[in-house]
Amino acid sequence: MPTNPPRSPESSTLQRAAANALQSRNVRVERLDGYLFRTYRLTTSTGFFYLLRCRPSHNIRLLRHEEDRLEIEGCTLRMLSSRMAGFSARLIEYHTTTIPIGSKYLISGPFEGSILADIEPSLSRQACANIDRSLGQYVRSLAAVTGASFGPIRQAPEFGSQSWGRVFAAMLETILRDGEDALINLPYESMKDLVRRHRACLDQITQPRLVLLELSADDNVVVDTKTNRVTGLLDFSTAFWGDPYMSDCWYKPTKSFAEGFGKLPNGDTDERTRQYLYVLYHALLAIVRRSYRPSEGSDELDARRDLTTAIRQLTAMVR
Known about the structure:
Blueprint: H1 11-22, E1 28-32, E2 38-43, E3 49-54, H2 69-83, E4 90-95, E5 105-111, E6 114-115, H3 116-119, H4 125-143, H5 164-181, H6 188-197, H7 199-202, E7 209-212, E8 221-224, E9 229-233, E10 239-242, H8 255-261, H9 269-292, H10 300-317
Antiparallel strand pairs: 1-2, 2-3, 3-5, 4-5, 6-8, 7-10, 8-9
Helix pairs in contact: 4-8, 5-6, 5-9, 9-10
Protein name: Aminoglycoside phosphotransferase domain-containing protein
InterPro entries: AGP_Transferase, Aminoglycoside_PTrfase, Kinase-like_dom_sf
Organism: Friedmanniomyces endolithicus
């Protein structure tokens, strides 16, 4: 928890910061619910919208890997703007101090279209399938972006590694430490042992690629309602260099998403082993996050079932 918890920004302060960053006197500021970091939609007369994102209030418990999300998003947007042709959203402004709104904040955009969560109830089954297929294509384009080493987007030498197995184990260890801090009843040593025993399988992944750990939520996807195509994602704060199949969009993918991406990660035993390791990670994350923030509404029972299934399958796959 930060030493000086961020205070809640006032509407007039947000308005001034947004107007200054977007160089527009006419900016509408709207708080969006359902996001971990406080998120505001900034609408101008151009027809596009932007996002202002700042730290949560002091009473929200963050996990270890969630602390640096604004910095990660800023780094990722800068990198994509320079390396990905046709990537529209960019980093407009990133304030690393609490001036002027009382919290660090980031402004990104422009975004064109509607947030999927706002329109999903009115969509037909075919429209949803088309959007899922387009999302698969969008994620495939992100996965084509490669890095020099596995690990954080910030590519200082001390942060990266040439071993995907080592980085995955470190990511899992971070969540396990959060679970231990919260005294959650989990098979900690069994999970660590399974990762150690399947390390060679993980290290078959040798090319670091861009991964968004959490991207598939409807409130993260921007859609052109005329074409039912994905035009962008709102949140790049969970990005890292790793195996694209670890993203939550592969936790329980739809058929249409897999068609858009081009390949399901279940072609052989090694691929299936890695997917069970990733299911283990996401199920563990859901359980720990539920303990830290019960109001988020995730189903712990389902997550524990998935965790048990992954552990059972991985145990049977040990050579």
